[in-house]
Amino acid sequence: MLWAFFVIGGTGDLARNKLLPALEKLYTSGLFRNLSGVYALARTKTTQWEEKLNSFRPEFRALCKYVPFDVKDPNSYKELGRILQEHKGQGLIFYLALSPELFEDTIRGLGVLLRNFENPRRIVVEKPFGKDYASAVRLNELLRRYFVEEEVFRIDHFLGKHTIQNIFSLRFSNSIFEGVWNKNFVDHVQVLALEDKGVEGREAFYETTGAVRDMLQNHMLQMLSFVAMEPPCCMEPESIRDEKVKVLRSIRQIDPREVVFGRYEGYKGKAETFVALKLYIDNLRWQGVPFYLMTGKALARKLTRITVVFKEIPKSFISLLDCEPRQNRIVFEVAPENKIVLYLELRPLADRFIVCPVERQIVFDTEVENKEPYESLLVDLFRGDQTLFMRYDEVETMWKVVEPLLDFPKDPITYPVGSWCPKEAWDLLKKDGREWFV
Ligand code: BG6
Description:
34% of the residues lie in helices and 22% in strands. The chain is built from twelve helices and 15 strands.
C-alpha cells in the first residue's frame, strides 16, 4: 500500500533534523519506497527548511511539499482535505511534531476532517504527552474520540535506540541471565542520561518541562521498564507492553527526600535542569533493590547508560587478601558509544594461585550500523507494529510515577557547568554506601 506522510510542524527542528532525514534515508536506501508524498504542514516556510530540502536527493525531494497550515484555522483543514482527495485508497500518516499545547486542536481538527475519509490512518504523537497525569488522560480521551488505539503511535525516540532494544534481547533471548536478574543477585541499578549541552535555543519549551517532564517521565522510565520488566508470555506487541505497564505500576511512590533537583549556573529560567533520585519497585523480583536515576544538562559529558550492579562477594572470603574485588556489572551504553560491557573479576598474571583478582571487561560492540532511532521507529510505524510505541495506559502510568515530583517545592541546588556529578547527587548514593558509575 502507498502511504502519504503529513508532518504537522513540518518545518520545525524535529522535522528538519530528524524526521525528514530519516524518511529520506529509508526511501533512498530502498528500505521503504511506498511513499506517495511527504507534506510539511506549518504556518511558515523557513529558509532552514528550504535549505534542508535542497540537501535531499532529487527523487526524495520530488515527494516533499510545503503546505501552509495553521492548526487553529478551519480553512487549513479544508485545504488539507483537498490534498487527501488526491490520496484515495492510500494510507495516511499524521505526525504531530509541534508544541504540545497545540496537540489538542490538531487532533480535533484532523479527527473531524478524517470522518469524511475511509483511508487507513495512523497518528503519531510526540513527547511530552501531556504535562501531568490529568492532561495525559484528557489527551488519550480526545484521541479515543477520533481514532482507535491501533491507529495511535505515541513515540519515544529512546526506544528506537539499538542498545536499549538490546536490553530486551540480552535478557530474553539468552537463558543465562534470567536466573540472576533479580533481588537475589542484583545489588542496585543505575540509569543515567547525562548531557553536556545546556538548553540553549530551547529555553521557552524547557521552562514548561524541566528535566522531570523532558527526560524522567519518558526516556528514563522507558529505560527502566526494559531493564526491570517481567518476561512477556510471548514475543507479541500487547504482551510486551502489558509487562512494561505492570512494572511501571509496581514503582513505589517516590520519596521526596530521595530526590535531588539541580539547575546549572547561569541558567536564567525557573525549571530544574537536573534530577537524581532513588526509587523502588515493589514486586517479587525487585523487592528492596534500589534503582538510581540521574539526568541533567550542561554536565561534563554526554553519557546515556544503564548499569546493573551485582552483589558483592562476602567480605570475609577475601579478608586475608589486601584487596576488594569490584562488583560485577552489566553496562548498556547508549551514548557516546553503543555497547554492552560485562565487568568480571579475573586472575592477573601472577606467580601464586591465591591472588587479588583484577577487573576485566568483555565488550560487545552493538553498533552494527549507523542508524538513527527515528529510522527504526518509522519502519515499525509503516509496518503498523506498536511494540515500541507507548500504549495509553503506559504513558498515564509514567505520569503517575512522576506526579509527586511535579508540584514538589523543588529548591534546586546550583551546579557549575561541566560538573561530572553534583555533590548532592553523589551523596544520594554515598549514604547508601554506593557510588555512581559515571
Ligand atoms: C529529547 C529531549 O527528548 O531527548 C532533549 O527533549 C534531550 O532535551 C534529548 O536532549 C536527548 O536525546 P538523545 O537521543 O540526544 O540522547
